[in-house]
Amino acid sequence: MRTNQRDGQMTYRVDGAGENPIVNYEPSITGGLREAQYPTHDEQGPEITGRLTRMRIARTNDYQQAGQRYLLMEEWERDDLVKNFTDLISQCDRAVQERMVWHFLLAENDLGRRVGEGLGIMPEDVAHLDVLPGQTLGEEDRKRLASLGDNPPRDVAQLTMTHCVPDERHVVTR
């Protein structure tokens, strides 16, 4: 099989893709790969007509899922996340650091406060920041913004964290 893929991990040979084994792109005048002929005609499938509209949906809640995810993490996962955010964001300009703490506080107070403490930024340092141009806050987000840094934890009582990779340290109890 000729895949037109080269130089990945563990590569030990050149894919014999065409007349010239050195060429792994097409079209090439030196005899590289050639696109296969498709058994169908160019115009197929349903005919679609209409107007394409791009606009923000009226009902947004950009921070709820992030906040819930944070609260459903194990404590060691939250510690790792805060450390990673703090280490990486500390390399940015102060204005970027403040904006990120602002976003984290909107998602979940504990996250915003912990990252902010690591950066030396308190909620009162970012409470004056305006909503970004083009950003639309839903009702819940506007309420959280009005009391930035003083919001109660989100209600995650009826939610369960699902993991992509099994976690031997996590025991589900309900």
From TrEMBL:
SUPFAM superfamilies: Heme-dependent catalase-like (SSF56634)
Organism: Streptomyces haneummycinicus
Cofactor list: heme
InterPro entries listed in its UniProt record: Catalase, Catalase_immune_responsive, Catalase_sf
Catalase immune-responsive domain ranges (all copies): 58-119
Coiled-coil annotated residue ranges, if any: none
GO cellular component: cytoplasm
EC number(s) from the headed UniProt entry: 1.11.1.6
Pfam families given in the database record: Catalase-rel
Protein name: catalase
Entry's Gene Ontology BP terms: hydrogen peroxide catabolic process; response to hydrogen peroxide
Source domain of life: Bacteria
A single GO molecular function term of this UniProt record: catalase activity
